[in-house]
Specification:
This protein is an alpha/beta fold and about 260 residues long. It has one domain (about 5-245): Rossmann fold. Helix content is about 30%, strand content about 20%. It is built from 7 helices and 13 strands. About 45% of the residues are buried. It binds manganese (II) ion.
Length: about 260
């Protein structure tokens, strides 16, 4: 299967020049999928029925970075350091994630997406590392640094899917987050941590591909072959899922001519 279709939920914001409302996400997520041979589709928030119509056509789901998930979804009140909620986005992403988990659709979570996957499975977060972390912690919130700035290293569990994909048990990563995983969601396994104990990678064992990382491989893949391997493996898993489904219900792929 060529070009598996991979959904990337986006968010509401406004244009810098005229403040008109737009749906958006960083280009690097879509580019990383394209570089790996996938076809990204940006998904706006909306009603469950509308989302279901898009979801039915997806071969994989990429949960991107972004603002803080509303702590109400893990049964907590927000502390002052927690960012204001984006209710529509939270609801859309949680609905898509739960559907994908139920169907075995491949999921790659990144930063907020890593946290959202944990919440979708019943886990919780530290709402703010500087406020709530017990003990010493590294500098994880590197706002102001270039996006491929190596902030700290991560240790990856030998024998994990992540270690097998990346081909290493240690690598340097960027870091743009002020929250971290606290209680793990049902069935999840911690597969990467930083030196201070912050969870930097999780996966759902016995699934073809339900994996998430706290760092931003999409901002490193242009120059870092190790980050590229993660997107290559994800797109391969999406292609394999699409192949299996195509056997049950074929969907024709009509060519589109190049515009000269
Ligand atoms: Mn970090």
């Amino acid at each position: 299967m060529q070009f598996p279709v991979i959904g990337i939920p986006c968010y509401s914001t406004e244009r810098g020049d005229n403040q008109r409302p737009i749906y958006a996400n960083n280009q690097t997520y879509a580019q990383a999928i394209i570089h790996a041979g996938g076809a990204p589709v940006l998904i706006p928030p909306g009603s469950p029925d509308m989302l279901a119509a898009i979801y039915a056509r997806l071969d994989g789901l990429l949960l991107s970075g972004g603002g803080d998930v509303n702590p109400a979804f893990y049964g907590e009140d927000p502390i002052p350091a927690c960012q204001p909620p984006e209710q529509e986005r939270d609801e859309a992403e949680l609905a898509l994630t739960r559907a994908a988990l139920a169907d075995g659709l491949p999921i790659l979570g990144i930063c907020r997406g890593h946290q959202l996957l944990n919440i979708a499975l019943g886990g919780s977060l530290y709402q703010d590392i500087p406020t709530q972390w017990q003990g010493k912690f590294l500098r994880h919130d590197c706002a102001g640094e270039v996006r491929d700035h190596i902030a700290h290293s991560i240790q990856i569990a030998p024998g994990s899917q992540l270690a097998s994909i990346l081909g290493t048990t240690e690598t340097g990563v960027n870091s743009f987050h002020h929250q971290a995983l606290k209680a793990l969601g049902a069935g999840l396994r911690t597969v990467a941590t930083s030196e201070d104990g912050v969870i930097e990678g999780i996966e759902l064992p016995d699934r073809p591909f339900v994996l998430a990382v706290q760092y931003h491989p999409e901002a490193m893949e242009a120059t870092d072959p190790i980050s590229r391997r993660l997107f290559a493996a994800f797109v391969r898993a999406c292609a394999a899922h699409a192949e299996q489904r195509a056997i049950a219900a074929p969907r024709p792929n009509k060519p589109i001519a190049t515009v000269q």
